[in-house]
């Protein structure tokens, strides 16, 4: 409880306080934090398991593909292909690092030395055998020739005279063979200029791959069993799964003669991988065998008729097909990715609604936290958490090889997910503006997520893939944030599947310019929606929601221009008509206070910290009940260095008055000025010099007492050593320092400890005006006594308004006391003045047997005719006696006479207490209200 004036905290200091508080809060929310970062990892793992389990399943499980998608990826299963492309035949050759060389277990001297792998000169080996060795060797020698590239450099359709090979794996179909992106000619010898570029059209783009050259090596073996052993040994060296000494192909010419040609072909099919990575030999045999057959046939003709004879295989192509419907399926990637990212909405919304439901949001605001730092820091904080979750998702996807992620550009994926995360944070602010219960918003977010996931898979996806669906419908559905997410995931999925099938690239930045790609469209939609939603959320929060204090006018933003602080001379005058009527019914002291307030509002003096001018609060009627008047035109002036105590029965309007003064509710009429500023228009400025101890303890359960004080101290512009000193002093003064209490979470505090912490929060940072609503509730006598001493010291340089039901507390610390009944101020003054004004009587009490009650009452009446019985219980009676009409000696004489006639158990004569005054004033006010 520092004594120095620190001024209003800057934006940076408020942001710093909020960031540190948020980090601690998020650290303690272990379940939500784990869900935020572990769920992407678990979802990626589960997705990998699903993909692994789906190996070998029927590939014809894709839905109908719309025509615009078929234009981009016409090889997709379900796209119509009327005129398949004509491609030259290609044979599968081993990659350089796997081509056959001499080894310990393959010691054929005709194989090259393994050093050729480092030099990049290993040939492609073809083996042959047969019963007619002379014919077989002759045919084998005619397989590879040297050809000039001049005749082939301008046309893909004229490559049939070359023996072509590729190390690339095969695609899903033969509409486009990825071999043409890495193609070689196989010749007897390769010269320095034996490679050439050849332009080609691939999916409406012109590419110019370079066709290289590789040497072919023909080797003879004595028998087919030798070939078989050599192939097996080359495949299984070291029991590894990858081929390490591969043969490109092998031939057994059997008993071929000049007029009979018989051949068995071994083909290399190891590079065609299925969905799970395992070889798929059946497709490879169909697509790579034609070149091997033609290679043997041409060699046989050249052996018989000379080198000028050729039987050319000009092209091969896929069979034409029609578009046909397939049973729709759930998109696995969209399903799991959407679950990973929509979870963030629920976590952010819960955190925001928690502060609203517990009124902690307004508590922070009442201690100086402005809307601008709150919205900026909270938005950025949740966006950073979402971004970290995105990075976990992408990192795990790359780590586990999820091709939906690895095939597409990581930059595009991050930008898309980041923008969607921003939109989700905006939506969480909007949800927090409409909901004020954690359970409600959690259920709503969960149901919305499930409905969106199901609707996206069963409604939106089929429409995306339906060529007859109008693009306007798709655009309209993309305006819903969840469907924007699904559209983006759909595009990632399509590009990844295409890349996985044909070996091409996934989505790249250049693809965003494709008119058929919806990614750019949804990114623009989400950016616009993100900005629109956050502005709507802020507007609703200020105008409709009560989470940020008093609801503002629907046109509040217009009042921000040219706003200047009021000077006292500019203050509005009171409602004179209402004031004159009140003076007819109010007590003299209340009227005097009202006149004092009216005079202050006309003067320029700033000596009074609080001035309430005819403040009134009326709650509208509900369920057929009339409106409830909580505060009836209160006028009160409170100077600095004064503690004003508010007494009154339950429902008298004390808390309603405090609520108006701290900005929780708006006055129906009248106003109040705090430090010269009007609470109706300058509440944000008033908050910087105000401290509040509300009736209910507004604390974070997971923050410790020390962390609470550090946070609110920073909001009051305390820094460094001054902050730590103020926190330590507050903890010690309120008995929260010893026994580790200061570092215990507030949720584990007792009721009294929470009250003491609330009092410490209200006083830290030297606020000039402090409101305390029943601060001693739940305190033990020692703690209550200590609290009174603290407040006596605190009121020396600040104004304090305190509500209480303890008369002893009011007398101990309050300089002036006001008694409220039914929303009206009935009397005002210090305790001595009130006792003198309303206590011109003394109370006589006598306890006897119940049979003597009538005789006791007669004796008292005989002593004083004006005696008034105020309490009667069989055997015990209390009488109010006017001080002017009774002498104390007469009372003693009365008691002595009574003792001689009957038994007197107890008796007493007491002066009027503040409690008696309170009861009397309350009864009189309620009686007049009934009349």
UniProtKB/TrEMBL annotation:
GO terms for molecular function: ABC-type transporter activity; ATP binding; ATP hydrolysis activity; lipid transporter activity. Gene3D superfamilies: P-loop containing nucleotide triphosphate hydrolases. InterPro entries: AAA+_ATPase, ABC2_TM, ABC_transporter-like_ATP-bd, ABC_transporter-like_CS, ABCA, P-loop_NTPase. It is found in: Membrane. Pfam families: ABC2_membrane_3 (PF12698), ABC_tran (PF00005), ABCA12_C (PF24526). It is a multi-pass membrane protein. The chain crosses the membrane at residues 33-51, 332-353, 374-405, 411-434, 441-461, 473-490, 522-540. Keywords: ATP-binding, Membrane, Nucleotide-binding, Transmembrane, Transmembrane helix. GO terms for cellular component: membrane. Residues 610-847 form the ABC transporter domain. Belongs to the ABC transporter superfamily. ABCA family. CPR flippase (TC 3.A.1.211) subfamily. This is ABC transporter domain-containing protein. It comes from Nepenthes gracilis (Slender pitcher plant).
